[in-house]
DNA sequence: TCGAATGTTGCGAA
DNA sequence: TTTCGCAACATTCG
């Protein structure tokens, strides 16, 4: 479910509730939530440590400890909530895959209907960094860098943008939205984009992500944060899941095609190879 | 019953 | 080496 703006929204909700709390216990209700590690090993690594910062890298949530890091990935349907530990609500939540007990006698609860979400422990972030491309909203992600990364990549632009080692944080929704804003057909080979079109796409990516963060992300099926709040960006989506509806720019009915096994929405008139 | 769904990984083949 | 398609993970919904 969540892409960069949704993960950022969750991080902003968690940060004030977790910073400077210690982890006093961990329970895996679904043993594979810590895969490939064993739940007992993970629990041993994190209990007794204090959370000094809560950050985001791509679609990962990072809890910076006094030593090492916890990384959490929500995948499709993961949710994180902070609840008072005596609260009967905490145990009545459905699909709870893991729980952290905190020193302020509250709990960080990981709910995940489809059970794809994972948590893990890292001594340092190097293994994560080698698998992730640049952060699209960082100042280091310049037009020049983006154009340089695109050079020599004959892969179609949509699967390229979905590849987290090429650029971190984009998923199906924002790739379609950014390509629409930049008027680029999703099957255009990356290496075929001129500098001007790469610049337009770079701007579109940054615009769409920051606009969505301002609206606390997009709720399509089940993204929620905090006490069940939903993202408000859904109503701002221009093409995603809007097949047959008129293009907001030219009025041509929007199309749905399949690219790299993913449903892909576009304006067949505006977006050109 | 089948297919699709906001995500990632690993494998074999071109 | 790069890219592509597909299966797998687990569940819900139309």
Write a brief caption for the model.
The chain is α+β, with helices and mostly antiparallel strands and 273 residues long. It is built from 8 helices and 10 strands.
**Helical percentage:** 25-40%
- How large a portion of the residues is in β-strands, by DSSP E? 15-25%
Spans of at least 5 consecutive residues whose pLDDT stays below 50 are none
Per the CATH scheme, the topology name of the largest domain is N-terminal domain of MutM-like DNA repair proteins
Number of helical elements? 8
Q: Strand order, biggest sheet?
A: 1-6-7-5
Number of strands: 10
Assign the CATH class of the largest domain. Answer: Alpha Beta
Let me know the largest β-sheet: 4 strands, antiparallel
Our Rg estimate from Cα atoms comes to: 20 Å
- Count of individual domains: 2
First-residue to last-residue Cα separation: 28 Å
Q: Can you say what the CATH homologous superfamily of the largest domain is? A: MutM-like, N-terminal
- Which descriptor suits the 3D outline? globular
SSE order, as H and E?
HEHEEEEHEEEHHHHHEE
Output the structural class. Answer: alpha+beta
Instruction: Give the CATH architecture of the largest domain.
Output: Alpha-Beta Barrel
Question: Overall mean pLDDT score?
Answer: 93
